Amino acid sequence: MKPFSLAFLLAFAVFSCTSRAQELKITNDRFWNTVDGEPIYSQGGGIFQFPDPQSGIPKYYWYGVHYKEAETYRNDPSKTLERNHFEGVTCYTSTDLVNWKFEKHVLTKEAVNYEERPTWLGRMGVAYIEALKQYALLIQHGKNVMIALADSPLGDFKVHRHIDMTSRIGTPNTGDQTVFTDPDTGKSYLVYSYGRGRNKIYISEIGVRDGKVDLLEVHEIFRGASREGNCMFKYKGKYYMAASNIYGWDGSFAYYLVADTIFGPYKPTNEMQVMPGSEQDYAHISQTGFFYTVRGSEQETVLFCGDRWAEFAGNGLGYNQWVPLSFDGETPYFNSLHSWKLNEATGTWSVAADNNYIKNPSFEADRRHIPSNNKPVQEQLLGWHTEILQGNPISTTDPDSPVLNHFNTQNDRQHVIGEKSLHISDQVPFERRITQELSSTPYVSLPDGKYRLSATVKNTTGFEELNLYAQSGTQTFETSFTTSNPEWTSITIDEVSVVNGKLTVGIYAKGAAGATAWVDDVRFELLD
C-alpha cells in the first residue's frame, strides 16, 4: 500500500473522525513512558506517517536512537556522562501523537556490526521509496551517511549502502541531519550541514539512482554562522529551515529561515533569525530536533520536538521537549511550556493546569558560569535579571565579579534537578534582587487567579534578609529563609494572586561578605 494513496487518505479521514477527538496532555521536564509504562528512548530522530502493515490504517511512527547512557542517566540523573553507546534505532507508534507504543528496535546493533565497529550512529529519519516499494532509514554512521532498507516501516532494516559525501559537499560526513517529508507531495529530503564547521546547510531529495537509494542532488540553502540540529517543517504552504547554535550537547536559541519553495531562496539570505520565545530558556533547554505539522480539522499546528541531551550535558530531566509553535504572519513563535494539551484530530492545543510558568526554572539553560566571557558572552542568567543594589558589579572580565550560578555537586543533584542552580554571594557585604517578569503573551495567557510559588533552597548564616517573593498589582507575597539551611529545603508561598496577567517573581538578599544562598527548581503553577 502506498503511504499517500487515495485509499490511505480516505482511511485516515474516517479514522480521524471516529477515533481521535480529545485533548491529551504532554508534560516536559520529565522522562517519558510508553502506554505500557516502559521508558521511551528516542533521540535525534523524527515522526513520520505510514499505513500500518497489517490494517492499512495510518499511524504515526516515531523513530530515534536508543543510547545506553540514556538508561543510566534516567536511573540516576546526578551524574553527567561522557560517552554514548548505540543500542539501536527504536520505533514507537501512535494514533494521537501523545500515547506511544514501543514496537521494536528496527535497526539493531547486529545489523550495523556495532560490537566490531563501535562508532557514532545518530541523527536519522525514514522515507518511503515509491520506486522500490521500500522504506529507507538514513542515519549518520561514523563519517558517512548510511542507508538501510526494509519492506515495512517496522523493519527490520538492513544496511543498503554508505555514502561518502566528499565529492558532493567536500566532507565525508554531514554535520547534523534529519529527514523531512513534504506533506503535500510525499517527497522526502535529507536536510544536513557541512561536516566541518557546519557553516553551510544543504537539502537533497531522497530517490533512486542506478537501482540504489541515493541523494539526487545538492542544493545549498544557507552559508553563514555555524549551525547544527538542522531540520525543516512546512506551515501554510511555506517551508521553514530551523537549526541551533554549535553548543555541543547543550540547548540554544532556535533559529529559522523561510521560503516559498523547498530549495529556496530562503530569507533572510544567509542570516538565520532567532525564533521569538526561545530566548529566555534556550528553546526550553533543548536543541532543534525535528518538527511535525498537525493538520487538524480546525487548525494547523506545528510541534517543535526538541532534543534534550541531558545525559551528556546534565541539563535537567527528560530527553524530549515538545511545544506548540504559534505564528505572527510568517514569523514562528516558540511557546516554552512545561505542560500543555494537544487535540490531534482538531489540531488545537491549550495550556495544561499544571504548567510551570517560570522560564529556566532550574537554571540549566546557561552553558557556563555566568557572567561568562566565553561563547556565548553573557552577563545575566537566561530568563532572570540580577540587580546589584550593593556589592561588586557584574562583569565578564573583573575577577571580583559575583558568580550568578553554581555547578551542583553530585550530592546536590540527589536533591535538586540538573547541573546548575542560582548562586547568591559576594566577597563584600551585598544587597541583590533577582527577578523574572511573567505576563500573558498573544498566544499563552497568564490567567488571573490563585497560584503556588515554590523553590528548593540552601543557605548559610550571615543574611539580614533573604526572601522569596511575588508581586502582582499592589500586592506582595513573600516568605523568608534567613535561618541557615545546610541541606536543600523546599519553601512555598500559597495563594499568590495574579491580576491583569502580570507578575514579578524574585529573590531578595541582603547579606554579609561570604554569606551564600543557592536556589533551584522554582515553580509557579495555578492552584486547583
UniProtKB/TrEMBL annotation:
Key words of the record: Glycosidase, Hydrolase, Signal
MF GO annotations: hydrolase activity, hydrolyzing O-glycosyl compounds
InterPro entries, sorted: Glyco_hydro_43, Glyco_hydro_beta-prop_sf
GO BP annotations listed: carbohydrate metabolic process
Signal found in the keyword field: yes
Secretion signal, residue range per the UniProt entry: 1-21
Family per record: Belongs to the glycosyl hydrolase 43 family.
Protein name: Beta-xylosidase
